[in-house]
């Protein structure tokens, strides 16, 4: 436990001292929320659109932080030789990975709380009464997307291309899934693509809680799809994850 706590603290210090990482991973979803909440002033299902944008931008934060940010961090550390050096230290590899994952999830939790606070203070957004179901939904999403992030890191070969690959995956997925606004007016072809994306099911889960008063357990299909994506990412990571640089 002491080694884990030490690694977690080290990862937090590294993250917040890296301005580029802090801005892209932590601040970008917050800024997008402020921008979209200012531009979109209509209603969704009889309620202010901000009530939709709060969970939607937190869901984008899941994809951006737990998935994309984690993948970029692992690829950069692998290609710079950090992961290789870690394996030569007394720190167990599972403890190191647990510290990195926990640090990433902590950043996401702080990001989510920031969006919620801004939504309530600036736009009078309303949270559902069943806050526990909302927390469970985002917790499940963060864990599953983190597993997919490790899997994606296992497939990316170079540090230089990691940001480009992550953005090519995260931004279209968020747009198609409804992370930047409702998708009710999308063409059928785009909605069909969205039905295959994991972020769609996370948003189905949280919007059901926010707008329909459902609980976490009322959407078993969404839960199972998210778990399936998470397991798929973990299997890819288990088979392909490496500690040695690849582009040398």
Please give a structural write-up.
By secondary structure, this protein is mainly alpha-helical. It has helices at residues 2-17, 19-39, 49-79, 82-86, 93-123, 131-155, 162-177, 188-194, 198-212, 220-240, and strands at residues 43-44, 47-48. The protein has one domain. It contains ten helices and two strands. Strands 1-2 form a two-stranded antiparallel sheet. The longest helix is centred in the N-terminal third of the chain and has 31 residues, at 49-79. It is globular and about 60 Å long.
List keywords for this structure.
single chain; 248 residues; mainly alpha; two-stranded antiparallel sheet; 2 strands; 76% helix; 2% strand; globular
List the helices and strands and how they pair.
Elements: H1 2-17, H2 19-39, E1 43-44, E2 47-48, H3 49-79, H4 82-86, H5 93-123, H6 131-155, H7 162-177, H8 188-194, H9 198-212, H10 220-240
Antiparallel strand pairs: 1-2
Helix pairs in contact: 1-5, 2-3, 2-5, 3-5, 3-6, 3-7, 3-9, 6-9, 6-10, 7-9, 9-10
N-C termini distance: 35 Å
What proportion of the residues is helical, as a percent range? over 70%
**Unreliably modeled segments:** none
| Spatial sequence of strands, sheet with the most strands | 1-2
Strand content: under 5%
SSE run? HHEEHHHHHHHH
Largest sheet: 2 strands, antiparallel
Number of contiguous helices: 10
Shape: globular
**C-alpha Rg (nearest Å):** 18 Å
Strands, total number? 2
Mean pLDDT value: 90
The structural class is: mainly alpha
Give the tally of structural domains: 1
